[in-house]
Amino acid sequence: MVQIPLWATIWTFSAAVVPLAALLCLPLRRYLCRYVTDNDHVASWRRVALITAHPDDESMFFAPTIVSLIAAGLPVHILCLSTGDADGLGKVRSKEFELACRALKVKEEHIAVIDDQRLPDGLSTIWPLTVVQEHVRTFIQAHQIDTVITFDKSGVSGHNNHIAAHRAVERLIQQNETLEQPGSTVEGGNRTPLRAWQLITVPFVRKYLGTLDIIWSIMQMNIFGGICFISPNADMSLNAMRLHASQWVWYRRLFVRFARYSYVNTLHEIVC
Predict the structure, then answer these.
(1) CA contacts within 13 A on the Cβ side of 241
(2) Region of residue 78 (phi > 0: left; psi between -120 and 50: alpha; otherwise: beta)
(3) With 0-12 CB in 10 A as exposed, 13-18 as middle and 19+ as buried, what is 254?
(4) What is the C-alpha separation between 73 and 87, in angstroms, rounded?
(5) Please, are residues 258 and 14 in contact by the beta-carbon 8 Å criterion?
(6) What separation in angstroms does the CA of 52 have from each of 17, 164, 214, 225?
């Protein structure tokens, strides 16, 4: 008897079910998007910074968050910590990043790509925490950011560069008193401290359920807390990712079509 690998079973199931699920969820998507964006946590946000590791992270993993926040009228800034120069395509990928951000409706003056030789793109590369932290700190202070979003400690895909972004933001939260924003005040004159949220890594089986994971994610949010962002347009991630032409290979095409991160993001606060 032929043993069918688990991954093949999941891909086959996703290919058959995800398009149907997308059609079934379409009438509910706008309602659900409004429902999660009205979350009490989001209501207190003023300026949001997304911290990514490579050009294309914003399109592959964070599109539902970006689109939902911009639709809610919140300024979204994106700091990409490297040019993604592993294959010598740093300049090309930086330009692709700009095009993708434009497609996601992020203003050009709100994005930045770091070209630092100490932060080379690489699966096995461990970035110096102090270097990453300083770049993030500088960006946050320059744009008077009060809310940061990045990867969690597993980095969604386990990529060391993703994990470095998380660790740097986590360290800044631990040093909270040095990052209060002088331009942000609350009643009584106290400065508002920086807060940070992490994109949750889900188990492999859920990762490729596409829109089927929306209901499960909302159920978990209602039980365990956190925030869910649901993209009002299922093609936003796909359209943005297409603009990363140098990275538009077959497995990324499959990822953005079937991965739940194209449709829903679950965020939990980083608490130290």
Answers:
(1) 26
(2) beta
(3) middle
(4) 37
(5) yes
(6) 31, 10, 23, 24
In this structure, the chain runs to a length of: 272
Q: Give yes or no for residue 204 having a pLDDT over 80.
A: yes
Who contacts 30 (Cβ-Cβ below 8 Å, separation ≥6)?
232
Q: pLDDT tens digits for 209-249?
A: 999 999 999 999 989 889 999 998 878 899 999 999 999 99
* Kind of pairing between the strands at 48-52 and 147-151: parallel
Of the candidates 53, 47, 54, 50, which has an alpha carbon nearest to the alpha carbon of residue 64?
50
Is CATH 3.40.50.10320 correct for 6-182+191-269? yes
Distance separating alpha carbons of residues 231 and 262, to the nearest angstrom: 8
Query: Is the distance from CB of 66 to CB of 76 less than 8 angstroms?
Result: yes
- pLDDT band with cut points at 50, 70 and 90 for residue 6: low
Pick from 96, 135, 107, 42: nearest CA to 247: 96
pLDDT of residue 37: 52
Distance of alpha carbon 227 from alpha carbon 197, whole angstroms: 9
Q: How many helices and strands in the chain, by DSSP H and E?
A: 11, 7
Question: Tokens representing 25?
Answer: 């969820």
- What are the structural domain ranges in the chain? 6-182+191-269
Element (H, E) at 201: none
Confidence (pTM): 0.85
